[in-house]
Amino acid sequence: MQYPLIDRHLLANLRLVHGAYNGSMMLLFLYQGWLGLGIRRARKAKEPPPFPIIKRHRRLGPVLVILGGLGFLDGLTLVLLDSGSILEFPPHLFAGLTIIVLLIATYKISRNIKGPDPLYRDRHFALSVALLCFYLVNVVIGIGAFL
Fold it and tell me: 2, 33, 137, 143: least buried by Cβ within 10 Å?
């Protein structure tokens, strides 16, 4: 098999699309984090629950998990079409894998949040902060891989 499997110009454009998509995903995750932080602040201040924010946060979370996974698969597909080796950009790959693991863990833990018990809420918060940090790191690594 001769690599790249598709035209270099198309591949370059698809890389730009991948970067723009995952950059916008990072912004959506920052927005999701902002919503979660608003919910957390209200709970810590013993204020009434902000139900519209809670509803938006709960509705958007699972969608973002799926879209984040699609961004990872998109990048993986592009690398396979370009070189045939998923280890072409190892730091970007492993940061992406870490993001996927954090997405799944955050989603799974969020399903256990019930009542006033802070155990799962604190774990969800910690994993979410780690997720946002890895998204920022991966965007920087991805820009470096692109250049």
Answer: 2
